Amino acid sequence: MKFNTILFQLSLVYFLIFQTIADAQNLIKNPSFEEYASCPEEENQLGFAKYWQSYFSTTDYYNLCGYYPSFIAQDASPRTGDAVVGARWLITTDPNPLREYIHGELAHPLESNQIYYFEFHTHLTRYSILIDQYSAHFSKLPITDIPPDGILYLDPHIQNQSGILSSLEWIRIGGCFTALGGEKYVTLGNFVSNINTDTLNPIPISGIPIQRHYTLIDDVSLFQINTLLPSDTALLEGESLSFNPNNLPIQYMLNGAALPNGQFQADSAGLFTIEAILEPCGSIGTFQVEVYRCEALAQDYQPSLRDTAVCLSDGWQAVFARTDTYNYRINGQLAAGNIFAPADTGQYEIVVELPDCIPVDTIRVEVLNCAPAEETPACFFIPNAFSPNGDGRNDHFQVYGSCPIQRIDAQVFDRWGSLVFSSTDPKFRWDGSAGGQPLGNGLYLYSIHLVFEGEDRAVYEVQEKGAVVLVR
User: How far is Cα 422 from Cα 410, in angstroms, rounded to an integer?
Assistant: First the structure.
């Protein structure tokens, strides 16, 4: 007889996550310019940074592995890692605007009508005109054509909303937009004319007027909005959970108050609704955290597998459901996967436990070396009639025999196929009743699966089907 795969069915709805919510995918390739084909040796080598280009301008790539000049180092270190990009976004004295642009590639095309959040970080250099124009544009194809007057007049999807920037620190530029669908490239720069660029010229150094705006760029990010909202989750009482691994400008609100540092402390059991607010875009939705006590989680566990004996020859296996929530230890060893398929006979103890909590169940499986059914010895007897009339003679339907029964699964049906009795007790005795009420005389069908030890000490497995007459 072949056993079907047995599933552990659990009623717990949520996943347990004990430290942080998983990162959403940043759709920008090489977002902080750390990956490179070669270390830069001089200016105008943005193409050395993987997935980034400057098709018709002289945008610079600075990396501590090679070229990172002192006049840049004195203004800023990379925001993260070892690399930044430098670009000239305005020049006032030359008839040719001499604009520089940064062109990057996305991990995959954007989806139509989906909302995305984009940000990059900019840092002024010391001797630079101050401007307000910091923008990003997304396109299906890379923008490689040289513009007639040196300026890319593009409609910005993301634009600085804070006016002229003057801080000599890393500043975040970010916002949300709805994709048309198919966009695969991003361009960063100043997309308006000199006249339409608001400027502020600092006091000249040594009497020399400042004639250009030059900025550093680092940490470029693009996320689909719906991936930034944490999923409903569960947490054990006393644990904590951090919601913002990407360090985005998201505020998490619980009962009208902001959670400090985006961290939730599970001080008491209950169901909590948290709202996520992305600073430049507004609310992006709510999610729930259910806080459990260990005892409540243990009560939610409802296994379908019980202590049992099985035949190795049947290829028996069990699938452990919800391995994200429960640990399974087989004879003390943590299960490597979610399938238990014994390779040898013997006794197996399966302990089900909650991480950082308590064991919730122990199941024992005996794996037997069963002989083929055609070699089964005749050491048991199943009667074909019984009379439950209380006279002490043949009052019960049961299995008689001298062979020790190791496992049994007995079922009795009425003539219409309805189950009236079942038992896994090797010493079961049916008294001819169902639901506490005696059944009438007649023919009843049975199906009995037996695993037993023969007189030769071998283990045998049989499936017996037949009929028994109930006579009162």
Answer: 5
